[in-house]
Amino acid sequence: MLTPETILKSTFGYDAFKPLQREIIANVQARRDTLVIMPTGGGKSLTYQVPALLFDGLTVVVSPLIALMKDQVEQLRALGVSAVFLNSSLSPEEYQENMDAVKSGQSKLLYVAPETLLTPRIYSLLSSLKLDLLAIDEAHCISEWGHDFRPEYRQLVDVRRKFPSAVCMALTATATPRVCDDIESTLGFTKSNKFLASFNRENLFIEVKPKREPVAQTLKFLENFKEQSGIIYCFSRKQVDELAATLARYKYSVRPYHAGLEDSDRRRNQEAFIRDDAQIIVATIAFGMGINKPNVRFVIHFDLPKSIESYYQEIGRAGRDGLPAHCLLLYSYADASKIRYFIDQKEEPERSASYQHLDAMTRYAEGSVCRRKPLLSYFGETYSQENCATCDNCGMDESDLADITIPAQKFLSCVKRSGERFGAAHVVDILLGSENEKIQKYNHHELSTYGIGKELTKSQWMHISRQLVEKGLLNQEPAYRVLSVTVKGLEMLKSREQVRGQINEAQKKERGARVKSSEFEYDKSLFSLLRNKRKELADEAGVPPYVIFSDKTLVEMAGYFPQSRESLLNISGVGKVKHERYGNDFLVIIKEYCRSNKLDEKYKAPMREKDDAGRRYVAVGEAYNAGESLENLMARYDVTADTILNHLARFIQAGNPLRSAEDLISLSNLSPDQQMDVFKAFDHMGSDMLKPVYDKLNGAVNYDELRILRLCYLCEKR
């Protein structure tokens, strides 16, 4: 019998689900509408692809970009899964061929754009079929509060109404709590079945550097990433073209990407990057939403992004294979001023919202706390770890910080004495004793703080001002950047409490993604040979290299040296179909390399769910189905009845059948009417968690009874 676990291993080649994947799949199997907020690289696509292979009917996946659909379909076909897409890139003949594949039931998954799904032609097609699952990817496009709102997405609720029996999933990698609420409301989700994965991407090293000589800084950075794939984001088309041309002169394999290029050139450049024919893409933010390239080893922001959401989504394109990747942001106050100029041209309320986004972005860039704390806080997640060890601020020693109490007192006093009506630049002019027109106009040359800060440069003072805002000693109004002293700042002035910070911006030591690169040792020469073979096979098949195998899979091959069918199937990402198609090509290379270099195969233990005890529910369920009693199972494993009941519940929730519930119902001490009340509560609240059902019944039924009746309920539902 097919289960999520068997599909995961045989089709996708993985031994264990990532966090939350299994719970999400169980929720969808139970036909409950599901909202999934999971970071890029967290495995969102598996949460609808696995149910699609379990359901009898069709799964429709709504996706906003042609590139995204094409990529997913190519990867599924490489796994032996029949999937098609319908969009404007197809010829009339191909379009009809894909329509026929869906109509005949040959294809289990159909990928469409929202505007395609809303057409009468597709509605007519779907009306003749059993639609089991509607999965809406990039669901933040539904919300007017999201960073990429698309009006046609809001019309998807009409599809929900036309196919009420289909379970609906909404999936996104970037959504604030407000956006999540809007998605649920728009799609008409009757109750919250929300799965929020951690937004923390541990394999990303996050760094912000002062932007001084950006081209030279970029070239120096790239020295550490020879022949590695990466994306460089720029603010303008002109900057994209200039930087791409410069990198090409330095012999980098690079292509530009922006809206000013011809469609054919954009497609060609994107395809070259995806297929590893070009290593670096220099792009505006128009690039990347439809890209599922897992081996991007770095992302550089040459200019400041407009919002935290955009920034998070863009760095999320790095390290999707779980291997280390480096994200560098080059920050200058001038970039923020440039964005602010464009915001000024907007109308309200868009202008105020844009100021808030930019203010959050600049506070993040100028901050000295762990990069993950403000980044995750923006998405409603608390990061409690003191030192993440994979960002520039956490890599900074305490000795990098100086006593800046006196400069802080001078700055706060100057803000106060000038009336708390000006921005940082004007306050710095007062401290430096400037004689400019604005100083004279407001008689600020007569202030006691005039000229008392000449021991520092303007750049140093501006850096100190940003730290004081971040430490909560100063407040900065978003639109006009006016500074005012906070209550905390006033207390600091009175108590003369020590303030530690940086005088100069360039005090951070050089660190990088090398921090975690030693986690898994592998043979670099063998990896290079395997990568070349992958490229050769990919070119022959006309697909991107990662469709054959990911870098992570090749890294494991180059680390464990598998030399048999069994050991190759034990490598992460090698499923049965991929082994049949490509396994022998890679085994030949590995065997020859090991023979020449006198290397032996290393044993790789199959990954288990935590440990053997974590899989015990399977053994318990199978023994129960074979006729073993609860008492015997309790004695065999030396556990209580509650534990056995929990194992059986987990067994059935994993999609396995369980024999008749007659002997289970006899364990209950409730009357038939009371039992019926409990079953109704399960209908209303779901069966995954017992506490909501307990609360629904006002505590009238204890947990022992609920465990028994949940099992009976699940048996009846199968």
Would you give the CATH topology of the largest domain?
Rossmann fold
Number of helices: 34
What amount of the residues lies in strands? 5-15%
Instruction: Tell me, briefly, the overall form.
Output: globular
Major sheet size, sense and barrel closure: 7 strands, parallel
Major sheet: order of its strands? 3-4-2-5-6-1-7
What's the rounded overall pLDDT mean? 87
Specify Rg, calculated over alpha carbons. Answer: 29 Å
Structural class: alpha/beta
Number of strands: 17
Say which CATH homologous superfamily of the largest domain is assigned. Answer: P-loop containing nucleotide triphosphate hydrolases
Q: Could you say how many structural domains there are in total?
A: 5
Instruction: For the record, give the distance between the C-alpha atoms at the N and C termini, rounded to a whole number.
Output: 14 Å
* Top-tier CATH class of the largest domain: Alpha Beta
The CATH architecture of the largest domain is 3-Layer(aba) Sandwich
Helical amount among residues, as a percent range?
A: 40-55%
The low-confidence parts are 506-518, 608-614
